[in-house]
Design goal:
single chain, 437 residues, alpha/beta, Rossmann fold, N-(1-d-carboxylethyl)-l-norvaline Dehydrogenase, domain 2, 3 domains, 8-stranded mixed sheet, 6-stranded parallel sheet, 18 helices, elongated, binds nicotinamide-adenine-dinucleotide
Length: 437
């Protein structure tokens, strides 16, 4: 069985590689020629645990290939997944130009029946637009080629992407043809030998399921951040509250950790996009509007704590930042809370030196020489007026107190509540965290 995966980013590369791992002949296509050339040479465009080895293994066995040529990629394929980016347009809606340009290319090159599947996160109605675009191109060629469309939103998490892809909690497929369903069944059954479901539904519902899932997760985060901020006002402890509510099975213990706000390539843009789609349909998603507001505010929370601690004067202070990526185990810097903090600190006249185990090259692309970077967290704190823990990489969990003595002022702002306040304070540090006494 052969498939084509269009778009070789986080989603396309990981899921394409996982299909090849299951024995499916997979052709990954991208318009970025450098990315494709690098992949052929074993150079990964992203940092994702376990990916490099799996790509290499399947590439060597010729189950996985990389190309920029559409005709070659979709030739003899039974399924073609569209996994290109859907960034926010100026008004917050999803920009479909990349998805539709792929659809045009498919229409120009398709020779045999296949199911064309949107894996990108796309608003309701996109699969229909893809169908129309492909049909128009086929018509222009004066040929008659059958195809189906389907929606198969992706739920992988960066940092756990391989595991999520190989052992998904569920697979959602929006479909309106039995022929396409047989192909999707064949493709996905190997991923659910653990008994997890393939949930078939109509195409619009599948498209909306992805937005609803991300909106719900973003809501959990903003809810906990809101309660954490309230805790600080009334002297309660969010960690105790988290345990207290998380043990209720209706709520559950997952995804209820307070922090510095959600970032990444998905939650911010998907929350914006679903709000926008609802507005266009004369419905105001009030909860999600509040979720966004709370998140914007939360990204500034460490900055405001610093302003308060230093009596409003951050000018010429030197600050160390630990962790830059939007979450651990990824080098993705898109919408990372660290960027908001850094901007605010720089605007206040401070100097910033940052460390991250894997995201420094991405951070340099975004920040250039606006801040300093180091390859050692304990070099960052030398002579620093304070340290900000922004991303909770595991290597930060145990503090090396003797080396921390090299700080100029012993102040720690912990944006992820990973340290024990009593322990840190007993070592003579001023310690600030989120929603704790
Ligand atoms: P990405 O930016 O990492 O990758 C997109 C890739 O598509 C790029 O390599 C780009 O060069 C390529 N591309 C753009 N136009 C193309 C074209 N016309 N032909 C071929 N290739 C083209 O994006 P991503 O993070 O993989 O996200 C892709 C989609 O999946 C988005 O809709 C996103 O919302 C969704 N998604 C992302 C994640 C995630 O964790 N990153 C998770 C689930 C869903």
């Amino acid at each position: 069985m052969k498939i084509s995966m269009i778009g070789t980013g986080y989603v396309g590369l990981v899921s394409g590689t996982c299909f090849s791992e299951m024995g499916v002949i997979t052709s990954c296509l991208d318009i970025d020629e450098k990315k494709i050339a690098d992949l052929k040479n074993g150079i990964m465009p992203i940092w994702e645990p376990g990916l490099e080895e799996m790509v290499r293994r399947n590439y060597e066995k010729s189950r996985l290939s990389f190309t920029t040529n559409m005709a070659e990629s979709i030739e003899d394929a039974q399924a073609c997944f569209i996994a290109v980016g859907t960034p926010p347009d100026e008004d917050g809606s999803a920009d479909l130009q990349y998805v539709l340009s792929v659809a045009r290319e498919i229409g120009k090159n398709i020779k045999n029946y296949m199911v064309v599947i949107t894996k990108s996160t796309v608003p309701i109605g996109t699969a229909e637009k893809v169908r129309l675009t492909i049909s128009e191109e086929i018509k222009k060629r004066n040929v008659n080629i059958e195809f189906d469309v389907a929606s198969n939103p992706e739920f992988l998490k960066e940092g756990d992407a391989i595991e999520d892809c190989l052992h998904p909690d569920r697979i959602v497929v929006g479909i309106d043809s039995d022929r396409a369903k047989d192909i999707m069944d064949r493709l996905y059954k190997p991923f659910v030998l653990n008994g997890h479901p393939i949930i078939y539904m109509d195409i619009p519902s599948a498209e909306l399921t992805k937005y609803a899932a991300n909106a719900m997760l973003a809501t959990k985060i903003s809810f906990m951040n809101d309660i954490a901020n309230f805790c600080e006002k009334v002297g309660a402890d969010i960690n105790s509250i988290r345990r207290g509510i998380g043990s209720d099975r209706r709520i559950g213990p997952y995804f209820i950790y307070p922090g510095t706000g959600y970032g990444g390539s998905c939650f911010p843009k998907d929350v914006k996009a679903i709000i926008r789609t609802a507005d266009e349909n004369n419905y105001s998603l009030e909860i999600l509007k509040a979720v966004e507001d709370v998140n914007d505010r939360q990204k500034e929370t460490l900055y405001h704590k610093a302003v308060k601690h230093f009596d409003g004067n951050l000018k010429s202070k030197k600050f160390a930042i630990w962790g830059l990526s939007f979450k651990p185990n990824t080098d993705d810097m898109r919408e990372a809370p660290s960027l908001v903090l850094i901007d605010k600190l720089l605007a206040a006249g401070a100097e910033v030196i940052a460390y991250d185990p894997v995201a420094i090259h991405e951070a340099k692309r975004k920040l250039g020489d606006k801040i300093l970077f180091t390859d050692d967290p304990y070099k960052a704190i030398e002579g620093a007026d304070a340290m900000f823990l922004v991303t909770e990489w595991t290597e930060f969990r145990v503090l090396n107190y003797p080396v921390l003595e090299k700080m100029k002022d012993k102040v720690i702002f912990d944006g992820r509540n990973i340290y024990d306040p009593e322990e840190v304070r007993s070592k003579g540090f001023k310690y600030y965290s989120i929603g704790r006494k």
